[in-house]
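hiii so um. not sure if this is the right channel but i have a protein structure encoded as tokens and i wanna go backwards to a sequence. like what aa goes where. can anyone help
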């Protein structure tokens, strides 16, 4: 079974209540949810919420939601809580602030796990404009010759010119890999750069 989970923390630091920001009179996270539901390789999609306010705001749309601990350090930890007791093989962590989520990309990420050696995967795009290049809210990733991420950064000064991709914040894991990752301590760089993927990247999951 393949499960998509959308971690929906209400009080984000850079943009409080971002997941509930209205887009065409519908909360942002509902756009993500509806697009994820269009991905035919997902057996189910769940919004992992952390507040009664979010639950009330989404109630009329009737999505599949699950309340989670508001004290989680990252979306990854929130996703792990949701799937801990589920009978699932592959888990997708889908960011709640991607209202233009492409269901085809979701399906492609699931397909990555047809390779039995893949433990986790993420998505990167060569499409990156000048605004994203200098925007610290846009995460950049370097990819090595084998197709593995070699670095994640918010600031481009740490990159060689042309050596970066735009990181699309969506992750896939085997369930056991995800649960192992969330047992690790938060790394110094994860906290410093507010990049949760640095916790699993430093352990060299592939």
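sure thing!! here u go:
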């Amino acid at each position: 079974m393949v499960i998509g989970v959308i971690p929906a923390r209400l009080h984000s630091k850079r943009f409080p209540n971002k997941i509930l920001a209205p887009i065409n009179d519908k909360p942002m996270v509902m756009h993500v949810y509806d697009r994820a539901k269009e991905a035919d390789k997902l057996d189910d999609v769940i919004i992992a919420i952390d507040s009664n306010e979010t639950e009330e705001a989404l109630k009329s749309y009737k999505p599949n939601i699950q309340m989670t601990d508001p004290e989680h350090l990252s979306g990854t930890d929130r996703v792990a809580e949701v799937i801990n007791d589920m009978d699932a093989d592959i888990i997708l962590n889908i960011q709640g602030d991607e209202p233009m989520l492409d269901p085809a990309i979701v399906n492609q990420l699931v397909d990555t796990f047809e390779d039995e050696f893949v433990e986790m995967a993420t998505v990167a795009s060569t499409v990156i404009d000048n605004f994203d290049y200098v925007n610290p809210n846009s995460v950049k990733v370097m990819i090595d010759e084998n197709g593995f991420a070699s670095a994640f950064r918010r600031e481009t000064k740490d990159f060689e010119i042309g050596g970066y991709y735009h990181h699309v914040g969506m992750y896939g894991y085997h369930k056991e890999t995800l649960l192992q990752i969330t047992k690790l301590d938060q790394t110094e760089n994860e906290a410093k750069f507010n990049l949760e993927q640095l916790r699993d990247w430093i352990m060299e999951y592939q």
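oh and The chain has one domain: 2-201.
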